[in-house]
Design brief:
Low-confidence stretches: none
Number of domains: 1
CATH superfamily: Electron Transport, Fmn-binding Protein, Chain A
Radius of gyration: 19 Å
CATH topology: Pnp Oxidase, Chain A
Bound molecules: flavin mononucleotide
Helix content: 10-25%
Length: about 190
């Protein structure tokens, strides 16, 4: 079966938004990628899944590197521009700079990184695998920094959200959980 884009089934997932920066035949570019996932601690690996037609695919295939910048709650405009227009037709970085967003040079790879993101990770391409209608690029983290003052923007149901902490089960509930689990011990 299919799990199509913007379908109520697909929209039940909630993700952060990776702002993927790259440099290559398309020039300096940025795209929004909800399918950005941390998949290994040691080595630190991050996967991004991109549709075949994305300009970012051309850049990564040639440069073998990319930046992962997690979009912060005050950067939804950045996400909408990076995710709504292709670097094939638009200089998104130029437009974003004019809108007041700032970028800085990565220290270990040849690409721009997003200032004010909640997390910035410079990645070297580790592996490329095609799954269905998307190409998964796995990047190895070679330099990373986080911004303690920023929260990651959340994407769910085609809308932007911010996180809210919920109370974890209390002592009494934990004791009850354990008591029941003990009866199901293998
Ligand atoms: C919030 C958001 C999340 C997105 N997530 C993805 C994604 O995970 N994978 C993907 O291929 N495209 C995703 N897109 C669409 C791309 O960002 C969009 O097609 C963009 O124009 C590609 O840029 P490029 O052609 O310059 O690489 C997303 C768009 C938005 C707005």
């Amino acid at each position: 079966m299919k799990l199509p884009w913007n379908d109520p089934l697909s929209n039940k997932f909630a993700t952060t938004i990776g702002l993927i920066t790259s440099t290559g035949p398309v020039g300096q570019n940025i795209m929004a990628c909800e399918w950005t996932h941390h998949i290994s601690y040691d080595p630190g690996l991050i996967s991004i899944s991109l549709g075949f037609s994305k300009a970012t695919v051309k850049n990564i295939r040639e440069s073998k590197e990319f930046g992962v910048n997690l979009c912060a709650t005050d950067q939804s405009i950045l996400s909408s521009i990076a995710g709504g227009y292709s670097g094939i037709n638009y200089d998104k970085i130029g437009a974003l700079k004019e809108l007041g967003f700032q970028f800085y040079d990565a220290s270990k790879i040849n690409t721009l990184m997003v200032k004010g993101a909640s997390l910035n990770v410079e990645c070297k391409l580790f592996q490329e695998v095609t799954f269905g209608d998307h190409i998964m690029f796995v990047g190895e983290a070679i330099n990373a920094a986080y911004n303690p003052e920023k929260q990651s923007l959340i994407y769910h149901d085609g809308k932007y959200w911010s996180l809210q902490t919920l109370v974890k089960p209390g002592q009494e509930e934990r004791e009850l959980m354990l008591k029941i689990l003990e009866r199901y011990k293998k």
